[in-house]
Design brief:
The complex is a heterodimer of chains A (735) and B (84). Chain A has 735 residues and is an alpha/beta fold. Chain A contains 30 helices and ten strands. Chain A is 61% helix and 7% strand. In chain A, strands 2-3-4-1-5-6-8 form a seven-stranded mixed sheet, with helices on both faces. In chain A, helix 7 packs antiparallel against helix 10. Chain B is α+β, with helices and mostly antiparallel strands. Chain B has one domain: SH3 type barrels, CATH 2.30.30. Chain B is built from two helices and six strands. In chain B, strand 4 and strand 5 form a beta hairpin. The two termini of chain B are 17 Å apart. The chains are: A alpha/beta (735), B alpha+beta (84). Chains A and B meet through helix 3, helix 11, helix 12, helix 16 and strand 10 of A and helix 1 and strand 5 of B.
């Protein structure tokens, strides 16, 4: 049963060209995502729902002469307005009125899934059920009477196995048929208890009489239910302002018998209906075997083994990510800095371009953009492993295991993963906050994340430690990481009591069964996660690197770096840095350029202190090209070797080139051990780099959280550096 | 009746009552409770404790799914043990 879609596009009859909008809705973990991928494949477009960062997938394709627009709704358990996902799904169904809903129902867990189905049937939009994961249900010995299910619900039910692409053709056929004949659609809706029905009829009559314009926009019976439930979100949306006394009059029988909470009475009736239907159509085997998932969970979630297993898994992901990607990152970095820059310079000289253009292209654009491109391998590698952990079901377990420890920071278990990724690079960490549903958790996690000392800060540490702390190198380096973590906990506690007051959200989460994710799904999601970085960061960085180049080279013909705009900026800022130990324009300018990315601090210092750079050898064009190729081959080799080599390889090591030793000598004159340590702390804390800023803007749709991060980190960095410097001076350490 | 959070792994129980004020001043508490109910944790349901170790969240089997909930909620759900 394979699927052949869109092959007959040339034979399309023009008459049937109306676009059919198909909304795909269902519970989380019902295999909805796999089903969408299986149907749409490469035609899938992933964006965000307007104003929020919940992913929106859609696809346009042709099926048997009809144009189909497939829209994936967020996975929800109900259409009540309690979570962002539920509101999105409901608003879409109500306002966009798709032609048909494909309701993906997990065949192994029908009762809970039907609860959502029952709510959807009240909307008046044709519903077709994809009874997914059908194979697993059969393996478990469930006998599902799909005929009975169709009769009892009055809608079409198609068994599907999305992972094997089976049933999908029938599903699409049923969906297009349902969409084409809306008049024939007659679902069997839940008939609530008499008190509820009569109250609903009363309100519906009132609505029909006094708000008849709403009939075009909403199913009126459903709207009457919402009014009874006191759904303020829906009433506001519909512009309904109904007298409370009228609602009270309608529901007085109900409230007298059951108390005030009509909403939960109705929910209970829906649930009872779902349970009753399930009893009628599913026969379960008497004895339940312990499932593999439960066996694995017994070990993985064990109170003693849980955390060690989690740490080991994370270590492995971390290590594999960097071992695999580092050589490629270095290759991109090396290629853009070396041969590509020389090629560009040659090309510009060849067409008699002015010298400054060559300099802008090489020192500005290629250095800047190449620098960002060097992040691409690590981000994609990390996203691949995260996707694997998510797809396999382990990510949810990690959150479960780490929940308790994270409470001290006002967060819960799920926030741990982005934090951990932050040690490699803050950027994928920020993108990983996407896995947190709650906007509060997401924002707080992203705010604390830049305190995790990322790989880009390492080169700065390496240079300064090499200059001053060679005897205690390991301890000093370790202290930087610990300082970041300690301050994150401190700031978490502070934020919990200030910006993020109110009860921290409780942890409720479904742990999906363990499944082996398919390579195809892994690649699709890795690409979707990583491409944003490639596009957005690439464009911004391109602009920023040009600006920095001009700042360093203007006013025109500037002789000394001190008189360039950047140098002058450094001179302006320097007094602010005076109390914390490094109030000179050189350090200030380096820190300014470090705003783009922290390792640039070292590069700028080298440039400012005019460290003698190795003379570049003359190379030919073909040599340059060969060099790129050769170093790529070497990178592939390194990458493979890294994966196989175990503990011996320090993957996240900063490379020392010749200019570093020169820089050290200069730094030893300009800094003392105390000011050096204060400077390192300042670099650790002072602000997230531009790429993180872009990631934050991208994830939150606003600059607000970056603004908060920028503000608190600047203050924190200054206060910490001040404490170190002044404290050290008082105690007479390291002066 | 006893709180759900006191069951040990392997025990089954019927949910009797969820003692979280439905009309609460704190909207997030109400939302979270309703969310838990939508996930299947509701009165009358038979649930099985899968994992209850240490002070962290607990893991329940509800219908055919595994739902993790924080201890705070678990202590406010009253259940009746089912002896098999």
């Amino acid at each position: 049963m394979s699927l052949e879609l869109g092959v007959k596009s040339s034979e399309l009859r023009e008459t049937k060209r109306k676009t059919i909008t198909v909304a795909v809705a269902g519970n989380p973990n019902s295999g909805k995502s796999t089903l969408i991928n299986a149907i749409a494949g490469s035609r899938l477009y992933v964006g965000n729902w307007p104003g929020v960062t919940v992913e929106k997938k859609s696809a346009m394709f042709e099926y048997e002469g009809s144009k189909i627009k497939l829209v994936d709704l967020p996975g929800t358990y109900s259409l009540s307005p309690y979570t962002q996902e539920e509101i999105i799904a409901r608003d879409y169904l109500i306002t966009e009125k798709p032609d048909v809903i494909i309701n993906v129902v997990d065949a192994t867990n029908i009762e809970r899934n039907l609860y959502l189905t029952i709510q959807m049937l009240e909307l008046g939009i044709p519903v077709v059920i994809a009874l997914n994961i059908y194979d697993e249900a059969e393996q478990k010995g469930y006998r599902i009477n799909t005929k009975a299910m169709e009769e009892m619900l009055g809608i079409t039910v198609i068994p599907t196995v999305a992972t094997k692409k089976s049933g999908l053709n029938d599903l699409l056929k049923a969906a297009t048929e349902a969409a084409a004949n809306p008049s024939r659609y007659a679902p069997k809706q839940l008939h609530y208890s008499e008190d509820i029905e009569s109250a609903a009829t009363f309100i519906q009559t009132h609505l029909n009489e006094h708000h008849s314009s709403l009939q075009k926009r909403y199913p009126m019976r459903w709207l009457a239910f919402k009014v009874m439930e006191g759904d303020s979100h829906m009433m506001k949306e519909a512009g309904l302002d109904i007298d409370i006394s009228l609602i009270e009059q309608a529901t007085k029988h109900l409230t007298r018998a059951h108390g005030d909470d009509i909403e939960s009475i109705m929910a209970d009736e829906r649930y009872a209906f779902a349970a009753g239907l399930t009893r009628e159509m599913v026969k379960r085997p008497e004895i339940r075997k312990m499932e593999l998932t439960e066996k694995i969970d017994k070990v993985v979630l064990n109170r003693f083994l849980g955390i060690p297993i989690f740490l080991a898994a994370m270590w492995l992901v971390f290590k594999l990510t960097f071992d695999l990607s580092q050589p490629f990152g270095d290759w991109i970095d090396g290629a853009t800095a070396g041969p590509l820059s020389r090629l560009a310079a040659k090309a510009i000289t060849a067409v008699n371009g002015p010298l400054w253009v060559a300099s802008l292209a090489t020192e500005g654009v290629l250095a800047g953009v190449g620098f960002v491109l060097a992040f691409v391998p690590v981000i994609f590698a990390m996203m691949f492993f995260i996707t694997f952990l998510e797809g396999s079901g382990y990510m949810a377990r990690a959150a479960f295991v780490m929940d308790r420890a994270m409470h001290s920071m006002g967060l819960h278990g799920k926030s741990f993963i982005p934090m951990l990724l932050g040690f490699g690079c803050n950027v994928p960490g920020i993108y990983a906050t996407r896995t947190l549903e709650n906007p509060r958790d997401k924002a707080l996690t992203a705010l604390l994340l830049p305190l995790m000392s990322c790989g880009a800060r390492l080169p700065v540490y390496v240079v300064f430690i090499g200059a001053f702390f060679t005897t205690h190198a390991g301890t000093v380096l370790w202290s930087m990481y610990v300082m970041g973590i300690a301050l994150a906990i401190l700031m978490g506690v502070i934020f919990k009591r200030t910006l993020f007051r109110g009860e921290s959200p409780m942890f409720i989460m479904e742990l999906p069964p363990y499944r082996m994710p398919s390579l195809r799904n892994l690649l699709i999601h890795t690409w979707e996660k990583g491409k944003h970085f490639l596009i957005k960061a690439g464009t911004y960085i391109f602009a920023v690197s040009i600006i920095v180049w001009f700042l360093l080279n203007l006013p025109w013909g500037v002789e000394s770096k001190k008189d360039s705009y950047l140098g002058k900026t450094g001179q302006v800022i320097a007094p602010v840095l005076e109390p914390i130990g490094f109030g000179n324009w050189e350090a200030a300018s380096a820190l300014v350029t470090g705003l783009i990315a922290k390792e640039i601090v070292v590069g700028t210092m080298a440039e400012i202190y005019a460290v003698e750079q190795e003379e570049q050898e003359e190379t030919t064009v073909s040599e340059d090209i060969r060099e790129i190729g050769a170093s790529f081959t070497a990178a592939v080799g390194d990458s493979i070797r890294n994966v196989f080599a175990t503990f011996g390889v320090t993957s996240i090591s900063a490379e020392e080139d010749d200019s570093v030793s020169g820089l050290r000598t200069v730094i030893q004159k300009a800094f003392t051990p105390l000011t050096a340590y204060a400077f390192m702390a300042f670099v650790l804390l002072y602000m997230p780099c531009v790429v993180v800023a872009i990631a934050m803007k991208h994830e939150f749709g606003t600059w607000k959280w970056f603004g908060v991060a920028f503000g608190y980190q600047m203050v924190l960095a200054w206060v910490v550096a001040l404490t170190i410097y002044q404290g050290g001076k008082l105690l007479g350490i390291g002066i | 009746m006893s709180p759900l959070g006191l069951l040990s792994a392997g025990e089954k129980a019927e949910v009797m009552e969820i003692r979280i004020p439905k009309v609460s001043l704190n909207k997030s508490v109400k939302d979270q409770t309703c969310h838990a109910e939508d996930m299947g944790l509701r009165a009358g349901k038979v649930v099985e404790m899968l994992n209850n170790g240490g002070g962290g969240p607990i893991l329940l089997k509800i219908n055919e799914s595994r739902i993790a909930i924080s201890r705070g909620i678990a202590m406010r759900v009253m259940v009746k043990r089912i002896t098999s």
